[in-house]
Design a protein that fits this description.
Length: 166
């Protein structure tokens, strides 16, 4: 599920003068699992004019509230929200940590960036195995989790504190 992120404090850049505010990016829940009551926050894309502002933290915070708050609080009551980042993507990893996610480990050689060199990707820095396609890169993935018990034991307040910064 993807969501448009709108900053209602800014005027729209849309030629139709949409009164809702300025489109700042998109964010989503992915890899959701009803049986296990879990989801992942991913595809966090913030437009350049809104990077390093309150926008990303607030969008993530709203998704965390929706995912981890109980149904009585207006949420889904999930037990786990996961965050995955390329292990060398320090900005993504810092966002996860700032929002209260706990580092759980690294999945080594998790993905292959097909033609990664030509496409400007950053690999894991460990070369490629014998027989690999020329120009492919390996990705290690850092895994972070925020679970229901983290949420009720101070995680919710931490997220609210981050969202309160402007």
């Amino acid at each position: 599920m993807l969501y448009a992120v709108i900053d209602k404090t800014k005027p729209t850049s849309c030629p139709t003068n949409d009164p809702e505010g300025a489109l700042t990016g998109v964010i989503g829940h992915l890899n959701s699992n009803v049986e296990h009551k879990s989801a992942e926050i991913g595809f966090v894309i913030t437009l350049p004019a809104f990077q390093r502002t309150h926008v990303t933290s607030n969008a993530i915070g709203l998704l965390l509230h929706y995912a981890l708050d109980t149904p009585e609080q207006g949420g889904l009551g999930l037990r786990r929200v996961q965050w995955q980042a390329n292990s060398v993507n320090e900005l993504s990893r810092k966002v996860a940590e700032r929002m209260g996610f706990e580092f759980e480990g690294v999945m080594r050689w998790h993905k292959i960036f097909k033609d990664g060199v030509a496409n400007g990707k950053v690999g894991n820095g460990r070369g490629t195995p014998k027989g690999a396609e020329e120009g492919d890169l390996g990705r290690d993935t850092a895994i972070y989790g925020l679970c229901w018990d983290d949420w009720v034991d101070g995680g919710r307040e931490k997220v609210e504190g981050v969202m309160g910064r402007k």
